[in-house]
Amino acid sequence: MSGHQREQNASAALFERELELQAAEQAVQRLCGTATEGRPRLGGLLLYSGEAGLGKTALLTETRRMAVEAGKCTVLFARGSESAQPVPFHVVRQLLQPVLAPMSESDRKELLGGWYEIAGPALGIAPPVGPQDPVGVRDGIDWLVTQLATRQEPVVLMIDDAHWADAESLAWLSFFAVRLQETPLLAVIAYRPVELAENAPGFHELVAGRSSRPVELRALTPEAVNRLVHDSFPEQADAPFCREVWAVTGGNPYETVELVAKANDRGLKPVEESASLLRDLGATARGSGLVSRLERLGTAVTRFAWAAAVLGTEIQPSLAANLAGMGPAQAAECADKLRHARILTGAIDLEFVHPLIATAIYASIPPATRTAMHGQAAWSVTEAGLGPAAASRHLLEVHPDHDSELVEQLRVAAREHLAVGAPDAARRCLERALQEPPPEEERAAVLYELGCAALLTSPSTTVNHLKTALSLPHLTEELRVDATYRLSQAYAHNSQLREAAEVVKEQAERTPPGAGRMRLQAAHYLWQGIQVEEQDSQTRSRRIAELAERIRGRDNTERTLLALRGFDGMIRGEDAVQVVENIERALVDGRLAEGMGWTNTEWGFEVPSIIGITFAYTDRLDHAEELFKDAVRAFEISGWSGGHLAFAHDFLGLVHRRRGELDEAEALLREGLRLGKRLGPGLPIHWDGACLLIDTLLARGRVDEAQAFAEENGFQAPYTPAIVLPDAACLAGRLLLAQGRRKEAITELEAAGRKLDERGRNNTVWAPWALDLAVAVKDEEPERARALADKAVRNAARFGTDTAIGDALRRAALVAEPDEALVKLGQAVVHLRRSPCKYEFAAALVAHGSALLRADRPVEATERLREGLEVAQQCAADGLVATARADLASALCEGAEPAGDAVH
């Protein structure tokens, strides 16, 4: 296409686009034109929506020109491609490789920092090092783009034909778009609304959102077409001719320009006598008419065009020549003819003048020929050194033919896709490998790989594939054990804990004695032990206790069993000293053993999690904090930014909640919930984060906020089948009680207590249902209230930590007679002063001070309340601070010494 022709195309496409251009100009000015005025650069999102040929590309081109003229900025451009849509991160690479390619490797590493090995493979600048978490890869790309926009100059990011962008790039774009208002980056995106990919729900939400309404392009009016025709012909065009041009093209700018250009080529006069020829001439710009025009150029030219259509985008002439079966000279001649016919453009790499042309030519290739050409294209791409992943999009189009070599190529491509954080692309390759089909002895292994590929993104899909793999012969014993364990993980991640426990039990019975069988038995105890509705939990606890007595922690299976024994003992409220002893035996020199780290795939992150949780509930908060900080670091270094990192933030939030650092706990928990929400609703991760945040808000005295959060996040029965922190049903009862909904609280707490009692789960720190129920019934049933509280105190004494005993005494004092309450509160303060849990200590100090005030002992009350106020302020326990200040003021009024600033 000549420069004049491109200018004419752009000019036509911009007819009647004044409002669209004004919006673009304002957006560019906000980004690029504010620095000289001393105002911050403001990013944003421009969406252009319209059918093919309405001028979206021209608007992007004009916006780019505006950006260059308005000020110094970096313009990143990419175009989606129908044929390259299966290639993961294809659009992201188009955007960023022109910026990254000129840099040295050290400069790229400096720019990406810790994200280099995580996002580098997806960007095509670093070799893959192993499977990557797709959320982590997206975060790494986020970091890179943000660095480009903030460290150097503002960025204008443009994507044309976004409806054909690969799913991975669209997923990144959809998540990144929410940050555009706070980043000096303008994203300009053009797409066809009726062709949006169904596998990109995030992008659908983005373009349907209220914050950025798409600009919908319309066809040209007859007046605009009239102007265009007059501009294209040197002599005067008459009205009938212009009306017929509009009627033939429907005002589509692309088709109008093509029709007028062809009329010029044919030497038609722009008069009424020529109007009857326009309809046939217009048909050659699209569909079958275009194909007929191509065929008239000759067999060789047609075959070269077919090859280009199969290759899709960034067409290398040498690859197209190989695919068309011709030498370089003939290929160059064919390319020239296609350029002259306004079908192809480009000098070094070729591309189609318009996507409509590429689509029409690709659809015209006979199916059998097209399939064969895709097979040849895969071979050519591989021979060119572009790798199995690049060839895989062609292999997906080849007809199944029992080709074991193709199966192997697809399996290798799947591994490469996983290594760049594209599990959906890996899934497509492995599903296609199954259709080939693979040799019978490899089928189970392919199903296993397919299940593993979907584990992070679709646990239910993983379940189906791994169940099928386990039903087939030819799995090695080692692979069968691993498939079983991963299947149980997928069940657990899908909130099917009962099925998780059953599958490992069943497979363990079929496994000969040894490490594999013990691994499955340990998994069985794990999934059984974290079920809320576990059946016959007493028997399971007894069996694991007997096992733990006989083992020493010599290998990771034994260490896992010891960790499970410690966690079970903690939940049951057994002697904390023995609980910690078992946990410490599960470690090696106080640290996680090799092969049991946070990112290991043999045991998963569940085992180190229960070790850290047990430490947190047995007053070993320093140990728990060290473990969970290691988890955050390990997940961030590995790029695991999804559920794993969300859990790590939640567990670290648990440590700060137990320590009484409530503001820090709240911040960590909100971040964990934010990370978890990116994976979708209703997952187990949401329950831990939600329960811990509600508990933290209640401790801070923000009851209304806790209730609002509970309603917004679906915190209601039925609760998750997994044990959460704290117990969900107990927490629901406490929330109701805090709101004064006493009868509802009693119903909830009684139901929770029955289930926990049946299962022997008596930890009063994790599930203090009896103490809350005692407060709820004290007015109507004081004797029952005291009996409940006394039982809870005994359970706390059995557990033996200062936190458990002190907090149980503090709560029991709420239902005791005044004199007895004073004694219990005094004892609670003694215990909690030795505890690392400062919020509970502050609550005991304030409660003791208030009780002393009611007993007419204002001097002692003042001392307690002053100390309680100080500790409560350190904890950011706003409700407790208000109570302490009010009671301290009353104590001072009753004759205590002047308080200075103590009540301020």
UniProtKB/TrEMBL annotation:
It holds the Pfam family AAA_16. One of its GO terms (cellular component) is cytoplasm. It comes from the Bacteria. Keywords: ATP-binding, Nucleotide-binding. InterPro entries: AAA_16 (IPR041664), P-loop_NTPase (IPR027417), TPR-like_helical_dom_sf (IPR011990). SUPFAM superfamilies: P-loop containing nucleoside triphosphate hydrolases (SSF52540), TPR-like (SSF48452). The keyword ATP-binding applies. Residues 14-187 form the Orc1-like AAA ATPase domain. This is AAA family ATPase. The lineage of its organism: Bacteria, Bacillati, Actinomycetota, Actinomycetes, Kitasatosporales.
